[in-house]
Amino acid sequence: MEAAHLTGLPFRREQSEVAGAAWHEPVAVIDLDTRRESWEDLRLPPWPIVGIGNPSHSLASRLDVLVEDAFHAEQLVEAIRAQPLAAATLVHLLRMLPGLSVDDGLAAESLAYATLQGSAGHRAWIAGHRPTPAQQPPGRLKLSRNGDEVVAMLDRPEAGNAIDRPLRDALYEAFALVNLDPSITRITLRGRGKAFSLGADLAEFGTTTDPATAHMIRCRTLPAWEAARCAERFVAEIDGACVGAGLELAAFAGHVRATRRSWFQLPELAMGILPGAGGCVSLTRRIGRQRTAFLALSGRRVGARQALEWGLVDSLVD
């Protein structure tokens, strides 16, 4: 499929006929191999802009996502059209983050997430897809200390180490402890069982119905706030699935080590939201804005080798 058959590049109305797209499209695609315009005065529109091809084009660094071919662009377009408000809010946020501190970035991410918590797209997902809470014990975090090192073990293997409220609070307290105790030179985070973490516990989605209240809860309890402060002492050891909130937290680590069977995914867009556990901040600092957007918009799984090439992980082990 040719890029021009996907949609156009409506940066401004006078620039909107690059590929014959309607102005109301929620996404635009441009073929960088054929476009010569640089549009140095470009003001990005309030929706995702996907570039195909030449990464050295003068416009490439300004776009939201770069892909190699029209096939991958088409996959992105389908995902964006399914959740256009979430996709637009995500790219707005990612465009802002390079100019913000970690703390300001986390606050901005939480506000963007709160906006989407009240959206029709997320409410529809909750109504149709949120699982019924299972009769499982609450999440546990096992802490052990050996000299100057603390090991934190996600201990909810029966739920794929999904992060529920008790586990979230325990993680926050563990990283806060590290920040209060300078004698701790390392905190290593691991997951028990076949998965490092399947992300946030989906059964808890929508249980706080007021987005403003949910924002304040995140500002007080999100582990990312404390994990970011001790990043140079934080090591994440990944084995198996590393999804959503689990990946978002691990990406704050100064060193991420993964087994070769590990894989990584950000599935939030399909739920009508964006990564809201700090991942928009942590991943952009590891792999850049455009690759973060690709992961979040596509929802695709990335294997350990690709993650190493991107810088999402720092080393692989058998």
Mean pLDDT: 90
Residue runs with pLDDT of under 50 for 5 or more positions: 1-23
Query: What value does the Rg take, in angstroms?
Result: 20 Å
First-last Cα distance: 40 Å
Query: Given the helix and strand composition, which structural class is it?
Result: alpha/beta
Shape: globular
CATH topology heading of the largest domain: 2-enoyl-CoA Hydratase, Chain A, domain 1
| Tally of structural domains | 2
Pattern of helices and strands: EEEHHHHEEHEHHEEHEEHHEHE
CATH architecture descriptor name of the largest domain: Alpha-Beta Complex
Helical percent range? Answer: 25-40%
**Name of the CATH class of the largest domain:** Alpha Beta
Describe the structure.
- The protein starts with 27 loop residues before the first strand and ends with a strand.
- The model is unreliable at 1-23 (pLDDT under 50).
- It is built from eleven helices and twelve strands.
- The protein has two domains: 3-82, no CATH class; 102-277 and 301-317, 2-enoyl-CoA Hydratase, Chain A, domain 1, CATH 3.90.226.10.
- The protein has helices spanning 70-82, 84-96, 102-117, 120-129, 165-180, 211-221, 223-229, 244-250, 279-287, 289-298, 304-310, and strands spanning 28-31, 49-52, 65-67, 141-146, 149-154, 186-191, 234-238, 241-243, 255-259, 263-265, 302-303, 315-317.
- The chain is an alpha/beta fold.
- α2 packs antiparallel against α10 (289-298).
- The strands form three sheets. The chain has a six-stranded mixed beta sheet with strand order 4-5-6-7-9-12, with helices on one face. The chain has a three-stranded parallel beta sheet with strand order 1-2-3. The protein has a three-stranded mixed beta sheet with strand order 8-10-11.
- This is Enoyl-CoA hydratase/isomerase family protein.
- Belongs to the enoyl-CoA hydratase/isomerase family.
- Keywords: Isomerase.
- It holds the Pfam family ECH_1.
- It comes from Novosphingobium silvae.
